Amino acid sequence: MTRIIFLLLLLAISSALAIRTGKEKCPFNDTVDLSNYMPYDNGSYSYQNIIIPKANVSIYEYRLEFLDTRRPVPGHPRACVCGPRHHGKYCIKLCCEPGEFYNETSLSCMEIPRYQNVPSEMTIMAEDYEQKLVNVFQKFTYQVGLPCDKPKVLSSDLDTWDILEDGTLMISNYDAHLDTVSYCLTPKWDDSLNLNVFMPMSCPMKSEVQFSTILNTYGMLLSVSFLVPTIAVHLLLKELRENLKNKILICYLLSLTVGYLIISMINITQARFDFVSCSIIGYIGYYFLMAAFVWISVLCFELWYNFKAQSYEFCTSRCLRRFKIYSMYAWGLSALMTAIVVWTQLSDYVDDLYKPGIGIKVCWLDTRKWSAALYFYGPNTIILIFSAITFVYVTMKMYRMRCDSITKIQKQSFFQENVVILVRLFLLMGITWIMDILSFCVRNYPQFDMFFVLTDFCNAIQGVLIFILFVMRRKVTSLLKAKFLGKTVKGNGDDSIQFHSTLSMSTKVT
After folding, report:
1. Phi-psi category of 199—alpha, beta or left, where left has phi over 0 and alpha has psi -120 to 50?
2. Contact between residue 68 and residue 368 where contact means Cβ atoms under 8 Å apart
3. Name one GO cellular component term (predicted).
4. Which of 59, 256, 312, 338 is the most exposed place for a label (fewest CB within 10 A)?
5. Do residues 321 and 395 share a domain?
6. Is 370 exposed, middle or buried (0-12, 13-18, 19+ CB in 10 A)?
7. Apex 471 CA angle, 377 and 408, nearest 5
8. Distance CA 295, CA 291 (A)
């Protein structure tokens, strides 16, 4: 077991290093495209009189468009130049090269006629909320590109907008702040002024939520409606709640319920949260979902421990001490990971490329960025690998025991109790969460979308499956009948009712 833990830690470190040492040296919106520029002999570039060292150049195999929609493209060089972190000026984005304007009819860039002016100044909003006139090419470093295939000029009558000093486009009537990925500026003729002025172009603000998001959200709410009675049954029945494995299961279900509720609220609510509220909601959701995964690892360890020791503990002082240790580990580790996420998000020492993104554009981890693997999918992959190893170990143990008919008879009850739990957990939690991680890994490949819509929905409704497999059992229904109707039903194996004394010691099977 020590070797397994060591290998898992080694895998975690390797994954983190792989992410950290990737091709990209900074977030996409801090870069400029160097495809049309030739490097010097030493690998450096000159861009708008800025000498860019080779160390600041990376190969990007995608482009970000409106609202960070990722589009795969052939690898091309981009350089980190925007913002103080790269010792440069903030960036704005032009739709076309200087001296050109974007024609919405031909959907292409065209040269400004010679008899018209080429704008270079515009009014921006300063940090003190005062309007000031600046020279765009002196104040900012400009990028060039469109936010989508068919951008539209913002209406001068219906839209209230300002360019901020950091290059962000603020659209007041939409309560939106768009970075340079989601807008561009183009010269446009103003009849009232009789000259060209800079006007922002962006893409339609789609208010409809994706079908998959709606499906998963209502699937989670359906899960919660089944998870709550599952927890209630386990707390209500003494024979269930005083079993150590069931105590751990209850903690997992509680964590999953709170996590699902928060994610559903984020997806389904029409309310707009400020930065602080959005961040708090996201961190709470992260804490409980991480706790759910950690409790899975605790449950797998407990099952592995039982198989190794070949003992079955009901409710002894030793089992209670172990549960306290498990609780400190699970809740404490989740709190530590949440604290790391909070510090990383708020720290000025961490590049935006490696920040989780909670509270910035979404109230949850920004799963459009690979950094989500560092804080959520990566650690959870390690936990699921541990669960899979436990499953294989127990399966091999079962096979060896079956070869000895005498041992099989002596330990039949013990193995049946543990194996049924393990198989259910692995099929329900292991496979569904593994598919969720795979869905994240291939999120930029549309050909897999339909398949993972189905698997994500299965993961969202796992509360229903948990209720069926852990509550709708003959043993549990018999206990409920015995408690409320005074009926006692006896059976065999997993379906039998075994009443244990709370004073009984652990049974060592030999």
Report:
1. beta
2. yes
3. plasma membrane
4. 59
5. yes
6. middle
7. 85
8. 6
Question: In the chain, how many domains are there?
Answer: 3
Same domain, yes or no: 84 and 96: no
Segment among 347-356, 437-446, 449-458 with least mean pLDDT: 437-446
Q: Is residue 496 domain-resident?
A: no
SS3 223: helix
Residue 349 CB neighbour total at 10 angstroms:
6
Residues 80 and 96 in one domain: no
pLDDT at residue number 110: 95
**275, 308: one domain:** yes
Q: Indicate whether 351 belongs to any domain.
A: yes
Task: Give the pLDDT mean for 123-144.
Answer: 91
Q: Which structure tokens are listed for 424?
A: 């259910």
Domain end among 47, 62, 88: 88
CB distance 81 to 30 below 8 Å: yes
Phi-psi region of 384 (alpha: psi -120 to 50; beta: other; left: phi over 0): alpha
Strand, coil or helix: what is 76? Answer: strand
Of 412 and 210, the structure prediction assigns the larger pLDDT to: 210
Structural domain of 162: 91-202
Helix count and strand count (H, E) for the chain: 14, 19
SS3 (DSSP) at 65? strand
Strand spans (E) along 164-300: 169-171, 176-178, 184-190, 195-202
Q: What are residue 51's DSSP bridge partners?
A: 46
* Residue at 10 is within a domain: no
Spatial distance between the Cα atoms of 324 and 333, rounded to a whole number of angstroms: 14
| Residue 241 and residue 196 share a domain | no
Q: What is the mean pLDDT of residues 257-280?
A: 82
Q: How far is it, in rounded angstroms, from Cα 149 to Cα 373?
A: 30
Residue 425 class from Cβ within 10 Å (0-12 exposed, 13-18 middle, 19+ buried)? buried
Determine the average pLDDT of the residues in 154-176: 83
Report CA torsion sign: 132, 135, 138, 144. Answer: positive
Return the structure tokens found at 73. 């493209």
Largest CA distance in the chain: 100
Residue 272: CA atoms inside 13 Å, Cβ hemisphere, count?
Answer: 5
Final residue before a domain boundary, out of 51, 67, 88 = 88
Distance CA 488, CA 485 (A): 9
- Residue 41 domain-assigned? yes
Inter-residue contact 444 to 202 (CB < 8 Å): no
Burial readout 480-509 (b: 16 or more C-beta within 10 A, e: otherwise): eebeeeeeeeeeeeeeebeeeeeeeebeee
